[in-house]
Amino acid sequence: MDFIFEPWPWYVSGPLIALVLFLLTMMGKNFGMSSNLRTLCTICGAGKHADFFRFDWKANRWNLTVVLGVIIGGFIANYGLSPDNAVAIANESSAELHTLGFADAGKAYLPENLFGSQVFTDISSLLILIVGGFLVGFGARYAGGCTSGHAISGLSNLQLPSLIAVIGFFIGGLFMVHVLFPILF
Amino acid sequence: MRVLGYLFVGIFFGIVLFKSEAASWFRIYEMFQFDAFHMYGIIGSALVLGIVQIQLIKRFNIKSFYGEKIVFIPKDRGYARYILGGILFGLGWALAGACPGPMFVLAGAGYFPILIALGAAILGTYCYGILRSRLPH
Q1: DSSP 8-state code for residue B64
Q2: Cβ–Cβ of A77/B19 closer than 8 Å?
Q3: Which of A90, A171, B12, B118 could form a disulfide with B35 if both were Cys (CB 3.0 to 4.6 A apart)?
């Protein structure tokens, strides 16, 4: 049973994500995480400012329940199933990150300089998290879905719009990592 | 009962996202550097099995666990919104190192700075809703 406490390889994780898609589909629901962000806006009263948020959020309570589960799952996985959560990324990536100033690449789950507790008082790290998060939220809703809604469930249903969106994800991601990272870090 | 089903699927998904390291900022960087097969293996294998299962459900008209017809809603047609929204999303995904699912996972895993990114993602969603009618779709 020790393998549970090790990082899970792709050929285990990928099929398990397909199982999540299967279970939600068989419950009559559409797999998608980012639509919850819209639901949260509506709950906070955004319907007063834009039609986009005027819908019956209670119809999405099932998905908020999934999100609650995802949060609990993250807790269980980190505190119960990961005695050592260091991520052994490829040596090339690790070396590249060391030169950019990410000293803990290959030794931690997340980079300390972006996710350590000192970021709350570090303006540049805060800005990176804020801009990154903002683009994720804005882009996901503009594109009508995120990784789960387009790359997994949309492409699984052979949707051309999802393919266009995923191509966009990669254009943006590659530009960020290859062009903007050397400027930002 | 159904509520418990959703909760358990969510817990399972959260554990898979964390243990697969898909919620690791480092893995997203590595993916965009094409230095490892890991992330492509996860998304690719999930996708192949996803295509097969959806085709089977459609072909054999399989009913949901609750005996209802399963409806797959096609995405709206269009090009601009998918490519532009996709690029913005990709920029954020690489920078924050997390898409929406992993943001919730990391919040549960105790990495509280991710709450800043999550709050900003909610704000981004709100701004999209406000600007929607002025954006090309």
Answers
A1: P
A2: yes
A3: A90
Residue B103 covered by a domain = yes
Residue B108 DSSP one-character state: H
Q: What is residue B69's three-state secondary structure?
A: strand
In a shared domain, residues A68 and A11? yes
Contacts of A18 (CB under 8 A, 6+ apart): B45, B46, B47, B49, B50, B53
Residues A56 and A121 in one domain: no
Residue entry with tokens 């005996």:
B67
Structurally, chain B folds into a number of domains equal to 1
Evaluate whether residue A94 is within a structural domain: no
Q: Do A110 and B106 touch (CB under 8 A)?
A: yes
Q: Which residues of A72-107 are buried (b: 16+ CB within 10 A; e: fewer)?
A: bbbbbbbeebbeebebebbeebbebbeeeebebbbe
Domain of residue B7 covers 2-36+74-134
A55 shares a domain with A4: yes
- If one counts the domains in chain A, the total is 2
Element (H, E) at A4: none
Whose tokens are 């007063």? That residue is A48
Same domain, residue pair A66 and A4: yes
| Cα atoms in the Cβ-side hemisphere of radius 13 Å centred on A120 | 6
Three-state DSSP class for residue B63: strand
Residue B59 belongs to a domain: no
Answer whether residue B81 is part of any domain: yes
Averaged pLDDT score across all residues of chain A: 96
SS3 category, A45: coil
Contact criterion met (CB < 8 Å) for A14 and B112 = no
Q: Which domain holds residue A27?
A: 1-83
pLDDT more than 70, % of chain A: 100
Chain A residues within an 8 Å CB radius of B90: 139, 168-176
The pLDDT confidence band at residue B44, using thresholds 50, 70 and 90, is very high
The beta-carbon neighbor of A142 closest among B38, B84, B94 is B84
